[in-house]
Amino acid sequence: MAFDTQYTNQEFKVVGKRVLRPDGIDKVTGRARYGADMNAPGQLVGRILRSPHAHAKIRAIDTSKAEKLKGVKAVVTAADLPDLTRGDMGMYDTLENCMARGRALYDGHAVAAVAAIDADIARKALKLIKVDYEILPHVTDVDEAMKPGAPIVQPRIRTVGVNPAPTKPSNISQVSEFGHGDLDAGFAEADVIVEKSYKTEQTHQGYIEPHACLASVGPDGQAELWVTTQGPYMQRNTCAALLGLEVAKLRVTASEIGGGFGGKTHVWMEPVALALSRKANRPVKLVLTREEVFRGTGPTCSTSMDIKIGARRDGTITAAQAVLRYQDGAFPNIWGMLGAMTAWACYDLKNVKATAYDVLVNRPKVAAYRAPSAPMAAFGVESTMDLVAAEIGMDPVELRIKNAAKEGTRASYGPTYGPIGIGPTLEAAKNHPHMKAPLGANQGRGMACGFWFNFGGQTCVDLNIGQDGTVNLAVGTVDVGGARASLSMIAAEELGIPYEKVKCIVADTASLGHNDTTEGSRGTFSSGMATVFAARDAVRVLRERAAKTWDIPVDRVEWRDGKAHAFGDEHGNLAPLSLEELAAKAARTGGPIAGHNEIVADGAGVSFATHICDIEVDPETGKSRILRYTVIQDAGKAIHPDYVEGQFQGAAAQGIGWALNEEYIYGADGRLQNPGFLDYRIAVCSDLPMLDTQILEIPNPNHPYGIRGVGETSIVPPLAAIANAMSNAAGVRMTHTPMSPPRVLKAIREAHGA
Fold first, then answer.
1. Measuring CA to CA, which residue among 226, 197, 191, 205 is closest to residue 35?
2. Between 374-392 and 335-342, two packed helices, what is the crossing angle to 10 degrees?
3. Cα–Cα distance between 592 and 467 in angstroms, integer?
4. Contact 129, 62 (CB under 8 A)
5. Whether pLDDT at 572 is above 80
6. 633-685 residue pLDDT tens
7. Can you tell me the distance from the alpha carbon of 696 to that of 428, in angstroms, rounded to the nearest whole number?
8. Per DSSP, what are the bridge partners of residue 317?
9. What is the set of domains in the chain, with CATH numbers?
10. What is the C-alpha end-to-end distance of the chain, expressed in Å?
11. 157, 173 contact by CB (below 8 A)
């Protein structure tokens, strides 16, 4: 649906203000309840036994000694989770990932679980479980996994997307291709052609709260799950399917979430907790250790890429090609496909192609991480854009401005763009004071662009007006970045009441209709749209109640500034009725006053950002320091600017860590060597400069307030922006992330012959 864009330019009374966050006090005082903070009478402690091998056949599991240990109430293996997926391979992959079925596919793959009266007994029970493994050949590198003769991770997989369809198993689960035009003709037109290869290593989302849940299944089949998740409805539907429960009998409540960033958009150990509870007939609390989070839940992909760009001397890009190899872990997914779709999305290109390979390796199932797959592709593309600019002697910003996508551009992945913000973010970067600030010795400046689709999806909202005129707003999208404040502001704006009069809650799955997972920057866009319409539904009821009170036609009543106003010559003397007055007499005019809306929120506006980075590199050690960082991004409409800026800054901070230090390190034995924050080094405060932000607002015509999602786009440019800055500071082009001191020092020495 399309909306009057003039509406997005109106003077808002609440939207756009920096109001107090509703969850702040609970979080700083410790009252907020996270995944591990729920307890139930008689609860047991769950623990999972995990494979110590990267790839192994499970010949036998002997749980008899563990079952006999005093205090152990349940032990489960794959036999307790029979295959009920009926050929749904995506669901089967989830089942196999939750508990190994015949083979352990990666270091950390769950093979058994116990529930006991305390943690000590649970740990002792795990040691009593004997697993007979036959160690199999493994592969953990994406390029190695594609070679002929590589160990096959999933013998059932046949490559999708190639013709003719293959008959033999392969580690390449899918090949995806996007683009248009004639590449050969485009490269023939070019004055310069630049080709470069790149690699990125696997990274972790870095959420501070580990996965945790409390599961309870009763003998009557009624079940409850309290869990830290970005998608309670996804958890309900998946867990019910895997355990053979009726969906309506499984009630899922999302706790406060201590970070997710995409890592909590999947089901990991929750079916195991439910299976333990069902077998023990007691509630089971299962909290993963940090090591388990690293070894057994989803990180990003590692990648290998080849980028080729042809351009004329005037800066016109005549052809662009990307070949992308993404490892998906041990289970097929679409991460490579997303990389191919996003790779060239910032540019208006006549001849363009992106080919992606989704590749299986003996690593954990890959999960989303904030604009999944886009940062890696942008690292390759945006680094090569700078190389092209240097080759033709053009300013990197001007090169991008000349080739930037605009309204009417046919995107490399198919659609034609409406109003978009890539051009405005580039112009803002060009004119930003940061771009003109002086640099010192061993310092360099770089910039890069980024794109994310944004999504909408299924959404359901209830808005209930209390007898005192205060408002309860119930939503189903988990609040991962300020949604409760933003949605309360939207409700207050529509109703014409103060923000403080609205209380927003995240409802459980039994209290509200289906809502898709909070991912794809959909939360404020989709639930905001539903909130607008739910509030307008409530306004319709309020107008009807006022009309009934006055005994006039409802079409002679308008709602304005939180009050019903009668209009027309014959009604002009009627005093306005406030929301409070109408709510107080609701029982006498028709009963409770509420608004409701359920939609599939289409039309999520695409999002673009441009980042600027200054870096200093010590040529003697390879150590680098970010001096200054600026994020410029189009928000469509910033509902709560504090939260929007926080999303920009948080994404950039994660991108900085990804670019400079973070990586999963696997040994020759296929085991993860750094499963914890001591050896896996995320960015901390001392690694970061002040992160400056500039919010642009190019309204999305498909939303009544012009909203675009903002949470993901700004993790896309940092890898390339930092690489470009480092190239200018150290005189060496880094093509492999993370750009850690040893890797940088090696590159400097090789480049300068030291």
1. 226
2. 30
3. 8
4. yes
5. no
6. 999 999 999 999 999 999 999 999 999 999 999 999 999 999 999 999 999 99
7. 9
8. 311
9. 44-136+209-258+264-296 (3.90.1170.50), 303-454+605-752 (3.30.365.10), 456-601 (3.30.365.10)
10. 62
11. yes
Tokens of 399: 């090169």
pLDDT tens digit sequence for 453-478: 999 999 999 999 999 999 999 999 99
Q: What is the 3-state secondary structure (H, E, C) of 289-340?
A: CHHHHHHHCCCCCCEEEEEEEEECCCCCEEEEEEEEEEECCCCCCCHHHHHH
Task: Please compute the mean of the pLDDT values over residues 231-260 and round it to a whole number.
Answer: 98
CA 699 to chain centre: 22
Report which of 100, 109, 110 is spatially closest to residue 59, judged by C-alpha positions. Answer: 100
Q: What is the pTM of this model?
A: 0.97
List b or e across 465-490, with b for residues whose CB sees 16 or more CB atoms inside 10 angstroms: bbeebbbebbbbbbbbbbbbbbbbbb
Residue 5 in this model has a pLDDT that exceeds 50: no
Q: Decide: 374 and 341 in contact? Cβ < 8 Å.
A: no
What angle in degrees, to the nearest 10, is found between the helix axes of 718-730 and 374-392?
Answer: 40
Interior angle at CA 161, CA 716 and CA 200, nearest 5: 30
Task: Name the packing angle between helices 718-730 and 741-752 (round to 10°).
Answer: 40
* DSSP assignments along 454-506, one per residue: ---EEEEEEEEE-TTS-EEEEE-S--SSSHHHHHHHHHHHHHTS-GGGEEEEE
Q: Is the pLDDT score of 424 beyond 90?
A: yes
